[in-house]
Design goal:
By secondary structure, the chain is an alpha+beta fold. The chain has 44 helices and 39 strands.
């Protein structure tokens, strides 16, 4: 510690000497630009937000062991001082010479000028002042009783009187036994009789019975350790933990009688620490020259004036600053030495106990030097040799040297000539600099000093800044700050905060609010919350601080009725403008704060209805940021539905709720209209791509369903009846899992009758819409949590209806047989396979109950499998009470289980637990440091540039004739994708498993299942953030679901980042032809199409569908591609052989279309859009008889007719087609076990492969999929025999034929190789490379190398996959 402080002082002096003046300061020269072939901008990263990494804050948050804090903190209200001095008479067991210590209460008892009566009066007054100075609550005349030469009856009366008035608070008992014998071995102290002629023993246990608990004992007598031991033995059976005792001597020790110190040295240390410490230091210091004399030290006041302890200006005087430093040092010694629970109990619960134990550390040091160790309860570790006492000695030397001058000025000097707090702040700053890089951190020893600095306006800004950095280390730092007692200091700072301290206060309180919810009471007390209200209302507050202020306000009203009542009329007007803020964090926390304000609080709902037209809560449901959309759904869910019983104004739009809030009739009508608007907005939300948003929408629907339970239960029940009365075919488990919605049948019977109108009174369409959304969640949602919650909610609603159903209409007649050419029926609710039997039983039970005249549940209904299996039915046995469907008097047993609990607020609050968050907020706006990315991009771009330029120039002269096989797969591969940065190949197999292969070692890295339902298979693989160190893998399935996986190469940390249904299932396509086709654009857009009439354009940064295009085609989308050069158009190939061009700038309409080979149309197999081919388009048609690869010119105008062909080639049985993204080569695979390589410019065949390497190499299997390496002439091919082969380009042999004779295509002569693809001197090796931005991985340097601008173009291929 001393070394650290010394370095801090030296650093501060050196900085002051070398720091230039502001006008002479010069900026550092900017570093020279890093030479790079290609500009390497910071690549955009998608699907890497917090919501994609983890979703459970409890699992991520570190569990900290909090110190249990007692709810009742006793205060010391009274003090009893028993002074058994018996002046003039020495005790019989000790002899005091004339030159021994004689000061009692700093009064000389042996002075000839003082009579015993006068000395008694002065000592009594001094003792009262000293104990009154140690407390801010005790009055020296009323609350402190001095018993001079006490007797037992007097002590008993005083103790009993104080205990009656103190109640459960603490009483201080001080015993001075300098005039009586030492305590006996049986734990007895000595008192006197009324005539002061005899010594009477008094047991400490008897005294404790008079005084009661809690109490604190100060024993200033010899052999005090004996009393302590006997006392602990006497109360051992009572387990009295609230006992504090301080003794001057251990067992067998006598008090020191040094004449240089007072006789009551122990009491002087506890009540007059400054004067005693300076006197001790003056008598023991080796620096005698220039220091004050003992007489000058004795002129120091024993205690400061009591008013100085209540006001901050006391620190502006020399004695006040010295006391301030002494408090900081002793608190720090205790913090570093004592256990945390002991420190919390002794220093943070009672100010009197804290002062006494703070001064006890000084007494221990002095008495240890005098060979008289002290004792205490609780027993404390020794602190006399702590290194911080050296800092105190240094301060005492400085004070004693300046004491003569201070005496002449009567201690009115404004400041001591020392820089203690500045040096400690510098030392703490150095510790923080080291803590940023330390793996194991010890406790922050500077915290008590920082707390004392907070009370000074001079050092407070710097201290708050350092606290922000300390809190940013993690939750353990916040825990330590709370243990040291920072909370009460920060509350005091809020009352006197300056404008320059607003930022630090906001960031600190954000950490405290996120970590400890118990601060709500203190923030409401004395209107301390108004600081955050005023901060959030400041128009010039930066957004990164405004959202912090709103977050703190949300924490104040979170499940805290006093906070909600205090902020009732303040927050709604404040949050109206913040909901429209440009910063998404401000919008997020404004919505959450509003939701927490009116959650379970009807007064807030009634107060906000008049502001509802101005509150853009419903518009936030379509916000670009998923977290904001989720917060808006959460706010709507907490707004709908009252919590108190009152009159309800009926609305024709909504049914009457369970109960309504208070307010006038007009306010109730406004509230009903606001609820209807919120529900309608929630029902009209488009399908969302974020599981977080979908879950909050589901939670909001559960809140609405619980508020209007009867209409929703009826809608769900009759929808399920409709499903079975229509004899809807249900898929078997072999074709689809029970959690999936059955396929829409082509022919359905007529729709059965709707539910009775009286069930949906006031809600003509709202329950049906929300129930359809619930059904989609339960049947189609790919996120397991959302799907299971939706299923449980539907089951609970169905069971709630079966509890007390209304009269049902007569059973409908049996449906007629299916007819041909029947239009498809609307979507229906699906019942899982496990619930089918109980749903049929539920229908019969409903009919039986309808015939029951009593209205109660018969035995047959009670035994229904629906009621038995439902969570609602299992939760409440008393379900037979009467109820009226309509929402008002329905049974309440089903309500608790219908409401789902949201995790959004704790999940969003968890971001404030993240280490480094506050530092990032202080650096807003965010700036990326280009140093790391520039050096990284320099090497990586150079490697790829050389590789691709060499391969592109020699591609026309190379042939693909080397191979490498990857075996050991469980099913034939259906999709392949190669990574441009890492030696990684991802293979999707037919059984929905995905495996990652290391192409160097030819070993699988990791294999996982894509969680496809039965009957669905993987149809597309794409990399997201391909140039990152850990890219994401996007997997598309034939059921229209897209799943994105994180850490897919790591077995222990592979997890699903997100999943959504990219394309709705609308077309009835055979299982062998179902597929989802997707194309990833580097701007964060994903094109998706499949068995649907729609092609959707998803923005992955928003996780929403930004465009929805209708193909107007009765066949599925089989291929699509977007303009990778940055255009807004894309081409779609359909199953009927048509090609359509869409432009997103024209509202998604089809701008052009044509059919390839109208006489013999074949569906499109694949599609591409090269960005560097000057508008050339490659179209390929295929079928059973054959297929054509056609080169078109997209720049020619075409509407309904085939554009002009530039080149074409015909082949048979094509099953796969691929085009290299940056090199002019094409590849096709066929069912005749052949892979052909074509030149993109001329469509001439460059090479073809048929056999595995070796002299007796067998023929390759039928090709099922192909994939090019993005940056090398490497081709991966998947075969139906579960093999994957890798083919690499090599220089073609020099042609030997005459110029007139055309050179035939080179026949491959494959040879066996070992390890990775063989490398030549002209092609760089496939080595692991650093991260690359996606622009590099997709040929940005190729565009820079070509002077000609890239025109619009597309490559589309027709292939054969069998008859439709």
């Amino acid at each position: 510690w001393v070394a650290c402080v010394t370095r801090a002082r030296a650093t501060r002096v050196r900085l002051q000497e070398t720091q230039p003046q502001p006008q002479q300061a010069q900026k550092k020269p900017a570093p020279p630009p890093v030479p790079c072939v290609v500009a390497a901008p910071v690549a955009a990263r998608f699907l890497c937000e917090k919501r994609h990494r983890y979703r459970d804050p409890a699992a991520r948050r570190t569990t900290l062991s909090k110190i249990p804090v007692s709810l009742h903190k006793p205060k010391t209200l009274f003090a009893v001082a028993a002074l058994a001095l018996n002046l003039g008479v020495d005790p019989p067991d000790s002899f005091r010479s004339r030159g021994c210590a004689a000061l009692e209460g700093w009064i000389d008892t042996l002075s000839a000028s003082l009579s015993p009566a006068k000395a008694q009066l002065l000592i009594t007054e001094a003792i009262r002042k000293q104990f009154s100075a140690a407390s801010q609550t005790m009055d020296e005349n009323k609350d402190i009783t001095v018993c001079w030469d006490p007797n037992a009856e007097r002590l008993r009366a005083v103790c009993a009187s104080y205990r009656r008035h103190a109640g459960t608070n603490r009483i201080l008992f001080h015993y001075n036994g300098h005039g009586v014998p030492q305590p006996s071995p049986h734990g007895e102290i000595w008192v006197l009789n009324q005539e002061v002629t005899q010594y009477i023993p008094l047991s400490i246990n008897t005294l404790h019975s008079w005084l009661g608990t809690p109490a604190i004992y100060i024993l200033d007598c010899g052999n005090a350790g004996t009393i302590q031991s006997c006392f602990l033995r006497g109360i051992e059976h009572t387990k009295d933990l609230d006992l504090v005792m301080l003794g001057a001597c251990a067992t067998g020790k006598q008090l020191p009688l040094n004449p240089n110190y007072p006789a009551d040295l122990f009491t002087s240390c506890l009540t007059c620490p400054l004067r005693t410490a300076l006197l001790w230091h003056r008598n023991n210091s080796i620096l005698m020259h220039g220091m004050a004399t003992v007489e000058q030290v004795e002129k120091i006041p024993t205690v400061l004036h009591k008013k100085a302890f209540k006001n901050t200006p006391r620190k502006t005087t020399a004695l006040g600053e010295l006391e301030w430093i002494f408090i900081a040092i002793t608190d720090t010694i205790a913090w570093c030495t004592f256990p945390r629970d002991v420190f919390q109990r002794l220093y943070r619960e009672d100010s009197v106990v804290a002062t006494l134990f703070r001064n006890y550390l000084l007494a221990e040091r002095i008495f240890w030097a005098l060979d008289c160790p002290t004792c205490s309860v609780p027993q404390l570790p020794p602190t006399h040799s702590h290194r911080l006492w050296a800092a105190w000695d240094y301060i005492a030397d400085q004070f004693l040297c300046s004491l003569p001058q201070l005496l002449t000025q009567e201690f009115s000097t404004p400041k001591l000539p020392c820089s203690f707090f500045e040096d400690e702040l510098t030392a703490f700053e150095l510790w923080l600099d080291r803590a940023r890089y330390a793996t194991e951190l010890k406790d922050a020893e500077h915290l008590p000093i920082i707390l004392q600095v907070l009370l000074s306006a001079l050092y407070r800004p710097r201290a708050l800044h350092l606290l922000v950095r300390f809190f940013d280390l993690g939750n353990w730092a916040v825990e330590q700050a709370l243990q040291v007692g920072i909370f009460m200091y920060l509350v005091r700072v809020l009352q006197t905060v300056k404008p320059e301290e607003h930022e630090s206060c906001l960031l600190i309180w954000a950490k405290l609010t996120a970590y400890d919810k118990s601060c709500q009471n203190d923030l409401i007390k004395d209107n301390n919350y108004t600081f955050f209200v005023n901060a959030a209302a400041q128009p010039d507050l930066p957004p990164h601080l405004r959202h912090v202020a709103v977050f703190i306000l949300a924490g104040i009203v979170d499940a805290f009725p006093p906070g909600q009542a205090a902020c009732l009329h303040v927050l709604p007007p404040l949050l109206v403008p913040t909901l429209d803020s440009a910063d998404h964090r401000v919008r997020l926390w404004s919505a959450l704060c509003l939701a927490k304000l009116w959650e379970n609080y009807d007064d807030a709902k009634n107060a906000v209805v008049r502001l509802w037209p101005r509150l853009p809560v419903t518009s936030l449901l379509t916000d670009p940021v998923p977290e904001v959309r989720a917060a808006a759904a959460y706010a709507i869910g907490t707004f709908v539905g009252p919590t108190t019983v009152a009159a309800h104004v009926h609305s024709p739009r909504l049914p009457p709720p369970l109960s309504t809030g208070t307010g006038s009739g007009a306010d109730a009508q406004l509230r009903t209209m606001a609820e209807a608007d919120a529900c309608a907005a929630l029902a009209s939300c488009p399908p969302d791509g974020s599981p977080l948003v979908r879950r909050e929408q589901l939670v909001a629907m559960s809140q609405i369903a619980a508020a209007y339970r009867a209409p929703f239960a009826a809608a769900v029940h009759f929808a399920r009846l409709k499903c079975y009365q229509m004899s809807c075919p249900v898929p078997t488990p072999s074709t689809m899992p029970s959690s999936s919605l059955p396929l829409r049948p082509t022919h359905l019977p007529p729709t059965p009758p709707p539910p009775p109108p009286q069930l949906l009174t006031g809600a003509p369409c709202l329950p049906d819409k929300l129930c359809n959304t619930l059904a989609d969640f339960a049947a189609l949602d790919p996120w397991e949590e959302v799907r299971s919650l939706a299923e449980s909610l539907l089951s609970a609603l169905d069971a709630a209806y079966l509890v007390q159903p209304p009269p049902l209409p007569p059973p409908p007649p049996p449906p007629p047989p299916p007819q041909k050419n029947t239009a498809p029926a609307p979507a229906i609710l699906h019942i899982p396979a496990s619930n089918r039997a109980r749903s049929n039983s539920g229908v019969h039970a409903a009919s039986v109950r309808h015939q029951s005249p009593s209205g109660t549940v018969p035995a047959a209904a009670a035994a229904s499998p629906v009621a038995a299996a439902s969570p609602v039915a299992a939760a409440s046995p008393a379900r037979g009470r009467s109820g009226v469907i309509g929402g008002r008097n329905t049974p309440l047993a089903a309500e608790p289980l219908i409401r789902l609990r949201s995790k959004l607020y704790p999940w969003c609050s968890d971001s404030f637990h993240t280490p480094g968050l506050l530092t990032r907020l202080r650096l807003e706006p965010k700036t990326e440091s280009p140093a790391k990315s520039a050096s990284w991009a320099k090497a990586s771009n150079e490697i790829l540039r050389q590789s691709m330029e060499m391969c592109r120039d020699a591609c026309g002269r190379w042939s693909f004739k080397y191979t490498q096989a990857l075996t050991g797969m469980s099913a034939p591969p259906v999709c392949l994708v190669c990574n441009s940065v890492h030696d990684l190949l991802v293979v999707a197999e037919e059984d929905a498993s995905v495996s990652s292969w290391d192409t160097v070692d030819r070993k699988p890295v990791h294999t996982f299942t894509n969680r496809n339902p039965i009957g669905s298979r993987i149809s597309s693989l794409l990399f997201v953030n391909e140039a990152e160190q850990n890219p994401l893998l996007l997997v598309g399935s034939s059921d229209g679901v897209v799943r994105v996986w994180r850490n897919f190469t790591q077995p222990n940390s592979c997890m699903l980042a997100t999943a959504w249904r990219a394309v709705p299932y609308q077309l009835d396509t055979p299982a062998n032809y179902k597929r989802l086709v997707a194309d990833w654009l580097e701007s964060g857009l994903l094109l998706a199409g499949g068995n649907s009439y729609q092609v959707k354009l998803w923005d992955l940064s928003r996780e929403t569908c930004v465009y929805d295009f209708l193909t107007d085609c009765g066949r599925a989308v089989t291929s699509l591609t977007g303009d990778h050069s940055g255009g807004r158009t894309f081409a779609v190939g359909c199953g009927d052989g048509s090609v359509r061009l869409f432009d997103s700038r024209k509202s998604g309409c089809c701008v052009a279309q044509f059919v390839v080979n109208p006489s013999n149309p074949r569906y499109i197999l694949n599609a591409y859009w090269p960005s560097d081919d000057n508008g050339k388009v490659y179209l390929a048609t295929g079928g059973v008889e054959g297929g054509d690869i056609v080169l078109y010119d997209m720049r020619a105008g075409w509407r309904g007719i085939e554009p002009p062909r530039l080149a074409s080639v015909t082949q048979k049985g094509t099953s796969a087609f691929i085009m290299h993204p940056h090199m002019p080569i094409l590849a096709s695979g066929s069912l005749d076990q052949t892979i052909r390589i074509y030149s993109r410019h001329t469509l001439q065949e460059m090479s073809h492969m048929n056999y595995h390497p070796g002299f007796l190499g067998q023929r390759i299997g039928c090709v099922s999929c192909l994939a090019f390496h993005p940056c090398r002439p490497v081709l991966a091919a998947g075969h139906t025999d579960t093999w994957v082969t890798l083919w690499a380009g090599a220089p073609a042999p020099t042609p030997t034929a005459s110029p007139a004779t055309p050179t035939p295509p080179s026949t491959p002569t494959s040879v066996a190789v070992r390890g990775n693809i063989p490398h030549s001197t002209s092609m760089p090796q496939m080595v692991p490379q650093p991260q690359l931005p996606p622009s590099v991985a997709h040929g940005s340097f190729l565009q820079a190398a070509n002077s000609s601008p890239s025109a619009t173009g597309a490559s589309i291929f027709h292939g054969w996959l069998g008859p439709w």
